[in-house]
User: Fold Agmatinase from Roseibium algae.
Amino acid sequence: MTKHGYESGRLNLPFVGICTFGKFPYQADWDAIDADVAVLGAPYDMGTQWRSGARMGPRGIREASTLFSFGHAGAYDFEDDVTYLPAETTRIVDIGDADIIHTDTIQSHANIEAGVRKILAAGALPVVLGGDHSINIPCINAFDGEGPIHVVQIDAHLDFVDERHGVRYGHGNPMRRAAEKPYVTGLSQIGIRNVSSTARDGYEDARKMGSDIQSVRHFRKLGVEGMLERIPKGARYYLTIDIDGFDPSIAPGTGTPSHGGFLYYEVLEFIDGLAKRGSIVGLDLVEVAPDYDPTGSTSTLAAQILMNTLGRILHHR
Assistant:
């Protein structure tokens, strides 16, 4: 019989110890990354158009993730009859945060890109904790030379503004910047709803540039399998999750909440199917602003979806 692992070593309860992501080892030397997954914080929120606060997202998600550190031997899911993230085979490290230069978007983004490039050079899966959604821009930049990717976005907002008052690298621009890359073969933009900063011409441009745009109601009519069928099979996927893709009833801690969003299992089941359909080669989760949610449930949701996503990516490989 497999033992959980509590019988040996420290009990190591969630509130004990240093808050790395999932209590995985901290690797300060970015030239010595030796893991299957490396977690990078990108605490930048100067691209926001309304409420800031996502700079505290990486810290909040890390703290919440200690709840899911699973003792010593992984996490058993009785519905799937699978132990995800088993201790003997799970190689995840937390490499800390990219350095953020206040008021300097270009250099802050460059520092984030450098971190993602170091992760890719080490052969690891980059998992980036935002930060506002503009941090996706340097993440996608880092995939130059890595082969084609299809971007899968879970979000309330299209984020497809080209330029407004000279701003090209804010949190309303990342999917437009991604679509311009020759190695981005297309985008699946899922959960889009209500009024946002992207006007009609942005939607028209997005479709012309290879986007498939689906709202939450479209997704529910299609079902998980129907949505997956619209995504190229066997592709390399970059997954970007804006926490406001979820309904604010379960994720109020974000700068631009939008009612009518997803619930937890809808997104988890979709990501599980995506990990089976192709290869998820990069991942970011953005726009968690912990101070707007005194219960901490938004950070917990972010940590839970990330831990379960990583478990399924590694299990399905």
